Amino acid sequence: MMKTLTPAQQAMLDLFQKHVNAELAGDLETTMATMTDNPHLTNAPLVTGGVGRKGVRDFYANHLVGKFFPPDVEMIPVSQTIGSDQIVDELVIRFTHTQVIDWMLPDVPPTGKKVEMAVAVIVKVENGKIAHEHIYWDQASVLVQIGLMNPKGLPVSGAEGARKMLDPTLPCRVIK
Fold it and tell me: What share of the chain is helix, strand, coil (3-state, %, to 5)?
């Protein structure tokens, strides 16, 4: 059952979509225009991102906006929760590692390998602007998929976690 959004929730959702579209289009000015005067961005697995307008702008300009997205990138929505001042966006991102991805795999040369990763994004909105983004993903699964981590004997997986988010009927790992 789809719940009707309040006008304020719809405005938050529209703001976030404008922000993401600008990132994908490589439009730094529009990306920054969606944010407060003192935002922060944290990519939790690597603690990359920025603090304050200058820090976030520098991170976006040098490492993300117009730089991350390989030609075959897919962003597949899984779920979205919209509160009074936050959005929690769960998605799966698929791409081929055809370029250096500074914010996720800094200094790692392209491997040509396919990657599927489950991602959770928490977006805080204050006074009609994005105050922060906290972004989480399983870095071990990414490293397994590009061949930098051997999963043998470790409690990690590759693309299976992302695939399970898209198809909950897939079997769970059996713990012995």
Answer: 30, 30, 40
Q: Answer yes or no: are the C-beta atoms of 28 and 21 closer than 8 Å.
A: no
Q: What is the pLDDT of residue 1?
A: 53
Mean pLDDT, the chain, whole residue set: 94
Q: What is residue 105's predicted lDDT score, i.e. its pLDDT?
A: 92
Please check whether residue 25 is in contact with residue 69, taking contact to mean a CB–CB distance below 8 angstroms. Answer: no
Cα–Cα distance, 48 to 122 (Å, whole number): 15
In eight-state DSSP terms, residue 68 is S
Q: What domains appear along the chain, each with residue ranges and CATH number?
A: 7-166 (3.10.450.50)
DSSP 119-135: EEEEEEEETTEEEEEEE
Single out the residue of 17, 1, 11 nearest to residue 91, CA to CA: 17
Give the tens place of pLDDT for each residue, 113-150.
Answer: 999 999 999 999 999 999 999 999 999 999 999 999 99
Q: Is the pLDDT of residue 2 over 70?
A: no
Residue 2 burial (10 A CB sphere; 0-12, 13-18, 19+): exposed
